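Figure 2 data, in text form.
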Amino acid sequence: MKRALLFLMAMILYSLAFSQALKDTIFFTNGSTIIGKLKNIKLGIATFDPDDLPDITAKLTKLRTISAVRTIFRIETITHQIYYGKMVPNEKSQFVNIVRNQDTIELDLKNISLMYPFKNSFFQRFSGNFGAGFSYARSSDFGQMNFNGRLNYASQKEEISLSASGNYSITDSSFSRDREDASLKYNHYFNTTWFASAFLGYQHNLELGLQRRFQEGLGIGNKYITTQHVYAWARTGFVINQEKNLEGVSTGTLGEIYGDLEFNFFRFTKPEVNFVLAETFFYSVSQSGRFRNDGQVDLYWEIIRNLKLNIGFYHNFDNQPPGAESRNFDFGIVFGLNYTFYL
């Protein structure tokens, strides 16, 4: 009986030690360690689920190395390489070893662009942000409100992005929808840089005399810059529009050739900032000489973890606006708070 009890205790201790060894561990450059579950790495930030604590995020520049052997991870680097394997500690600071079926690869942590568990990783592929702002003047009894939000999904060869934004004016007797923009975009990657794209869009703009514009498009694009601090892509293709002006006149179906350009700059040292420049150009093939341009510039400044101050500038130009008496240029500056989340 005594031998059986000793054997049972030994098995329990062994199983506890084995399960602890399978848990993920992040090692910080200051010597501290945290044990739990590594959820993903995106844009230089590791999301980690510690034992018995809420999720935390850590900059890769603060990590010495990582141990994560419980599952296979998909790792995409800033040099467009893709690896599948487990992560074990490296003796060098800021490095990790990727253990694959037949070999082991040494990888600089700063070179990881995207990483998530390859098995059962559906929810870890979601990320997004939401922001809002409001201003009010008692003297004029006039208020302005704005919001913006984005939800992203990324898998091995696909990206889906749902985004929306709006600007509104409020007085003691009226509520005005000044500007609204929403889009659903789908990208399918042929490799780590080239992708095919399809999207749906909706726009509303009082300044341009636009009651609503529905938009459907196809295109092809390329991620031409992917580094630790810069992410940029360009896209071109063809779209069709259905427009209706404020007087209720519809245009039917209009065709346009378009070009997209988006530039992202990230800095993860204090102060942490994120700069985004996005421009889209449209040239009509249905209306002679018509040219349009939509643009957005945003600066995000992190106040506390995942909460940022947002300063944005938008502009819309149409040399043949839908409304006959409408202006052909609209712009605005928005201020707000923006919260970033990772599932």
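Caption note: Residues 10-20 have pLDDT under 50 and may be disordered.
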